[in-house]
Amino acid sequence: MDRIQAMQIFTRVAEAGSFVRAAETLSLPSSTVTSTIKNLEKYLQVRLLNRTTRRVSLTPEGLRYLEKCREILSLIEHTESSLADSGRRPQGPLRIDMPGGIAHFIVMPHLKDFNRRYPDIYLMLGVSDRQVDLVQEGVDCVIRTGELLNSTLVARPLGRFRWITCASPDYLREYGIPQSPADLSHHRAVHYFSGQTRRTSELHFVQGTETLSIPVSGQAAVNETGLYIKMCLEGFGLAQLAESVVSEHLKKGTLVEVLADWQPSSVPVNLLYPHQKFLSPAVSAFADWINEIM
């Protein structure tokens, strides 16, 4: 007995509710369908269908078996189609949401490479630091930094950001270079706030096992990374940012790292997407690409 074919026939009979209709849709003789179900029940040693003169219905065991048959047949179909499509390029729209700093300073410099590799993917890039409801807003995946709080999404780790404290040369000429967190009482900071936390006035540091949160005065608070960097560049105060996000500014000298012995804790970076039995080729392609450049 061909067990895969038997599963296909059983599934069609269960869905059609009739041996005759199932045989018609499968282009098989009714006798073949009937004998296949009998042999399948004999092989499994369980009754799958209740038969009447007008209709067949599932037994409790048949209902459980039908669910598993659908999963197995779906997996087979997906495996075969993925192999058949292995030479085809991922295509279609792909909507991604990410923080501004990652979008501007990590993704954007490499975006032409992504387009060369996947010219048939139409990217829809959303830039925000707020929490996005992927299902409600139709977003395929998001990049998020920080610890995950009871997320029901699938998380693919992309690494960790080394965070630094930095300032513009103009700011440091006016206020001096802090040598320790104790010096911060004479300094200013650009404050950052988000929907997850309202603590806007503190800078955070770690040295060994010691952790410090230092309140630092400031003139403004923002909730977008690009603006946060811009205000730091303009000399509004100290800022704490991922080193990779401001690496070009550090190389050019438009930002300068301070308090290198008292760095903030490193921050995990994850790609998040909804639970799916099969990940779409476009999301899978982006996941591999962003993991590579991160």
What is the number of domains?
3
Total of DSSP H or I helical runs spanning 4+ residues: 11
Q: What is the SS-derived class?
A: alpha/beta
Largest sheet: 5 strands, mixed
CATH class placement of the largest domain: Alpha Beta
What do these coordinates show?
By secondary structure, this protein is of the alpha/beta class. It folds into 3 domains: 3-84, Winged helix-like DNA-binding domain superfamily/Winged helix DNA-binding domain (Arc Repressor Mutant, subunit A, Orthogonal Bundle); 92-159 and 268-293, Periplasmic binding protein-like II (D-Maltodextrin-Binding Protein, domain 2, 3-Layer(aba) Sandwich), CATH 3.40.190; 163-265, Periplasmic binding protein-like II (D-Maltodextrin-Binding Protein, domain 2), CATH 3.40.190. The protein is 39% helix and 23% strand. The chain contains 11 helices and 14 strands. It has helices spanning 3-16, 19-26, 30-44, 60-84, 100-107, 111-117, 134-137, 169-175, 225-233, 247-252, 281-293; strands spanning 49-51, 56-58, 92-98, 121-127, 141-145, 154-161, 163-167, 191-192, 202-207, 210-215, 221-222, 239-242, 256-258, 267-273. The strands form 5 sheets. Strands 4-3-5-14-6 form a 5-stranded mixed β-sheet. Strands 12-7-13 form a 3-stranded antiparallel β-sheet. α1 packs across α2, α1 crosses α3 and α2 packs across α3 (30-44). The radius of gyration is 29 Å and the shape is elongated. The model has no long low-confidence stretch (mean pLDDT 86).
List the SSEs and their pairings:
Blueprint: H1 3-16, H2 19-26, H3 30-44, E1 49-51, E2 56-58, H4 60-84, E3 92-98, H5 100-107, H6 111-117, E4 121-127, H7 134-137, E5 141-145, E6 154-161, E7 163-167, H8 169-175, E8 191-192, E9 202-207, E10 210-215, E11 221-222, H9 225-233, E12 239-242, H10 247-252, E13 256-258, E14 267-273, H11 281-293
Parallel strand pairs: 3-4, 3-5, 8-11
Antiparallel strand pairs: 1-2, 5-14, 6-14, 7-12, 7-13, 9-10
